[in-house]
Amino acid sequence: VMDAWFGPVHEATIGLLQMAGYRVEVPKQQTCCGALAAHDGAVAETQALAARNVAAFAGYDLVVSNAAGCTAHLKELSHWADGGDELSARVRDVTEVVAALVADGVLPTLDIDNGEVAIQDPCHLRHAQRIVAAPREILSAAGYTPVEIDPIGMCCGAAGVYMVLHAETSDALGRQKADQVRDAGPSLVASANPGCEMQLRSHLGPDFRIAHPVELYHEAVRSA
């Protein structure tokens, strides 16, 4: 999904890591993280994907994922493959990496006003990984004013294959999340997971832009 539809998020991720001094490689041997297979109960397929990724990322100091659902799954590979625990220890979500680099002064904090941005917390970021502050810190460093839409972080209804298997409930949750965004005011929305982005786009329509926090930060840094 990320490769096919979210290329600018990859570009932002690689660009910011290189700006911070990392040597970035994208191993061709890697494959799907296996989260969707795991959600669907496909144990053998999940284990095979995990084993392939353990081998693909062997020897790297840090493994950065820019899809919250993928990061959450990769951090739990000890359940799925030999060596998965060692790989999981090196996995970080891009939001926590970039926020730390900003806090350390490696990446800049911009003294500009880019206006307001509504914050949507993906479940796999907020609830699975307990990452809440990082996206807000990144957006603030990019000159945006984060606007809260949901203090408890309810699911948007995407939830991997849930939006296909339980379309009616997923649609109801999506409409509820879209209403929260409209009530908040901004037409710009930040979300750190592709499923959430697609769900928001389908329910908010063309008058709203939904983008990854690092994508917005990268754009702001390049324009500064």
In words, what does this structure look like?
Strand 5 (188-190), helix 12 (194-204) and strand 6 (209-211) form a beta-alpha-beta unit. This protein is α/β, with parallel strands linked by helices and 224 residues long. A four-stranded parallel sheet has the order 4-3-5-6, sandwiched between helices. A two-stranded parallel ribbon has the order 1-2. Helices cover 51% and strands 10% of the residues. Helix 7 (94-103) packs across helix 9 (133-141), helix 9 (133-141) runs parallel beside helix 13 and helix 11 (167-184) crosses helix 12. 44% of the residues are buried. The chain starts with a helix and ends with a helix. It has helices at 2-5, 7-19, 35-39, 43-56, 68-74, 84-88, 94-103, 123-126, 133-141, 162-165, 167-184, 194-204, 213-223, and strands spanning 63-65, 91-93, 115-119, 144-148, 188-190, 209-211.
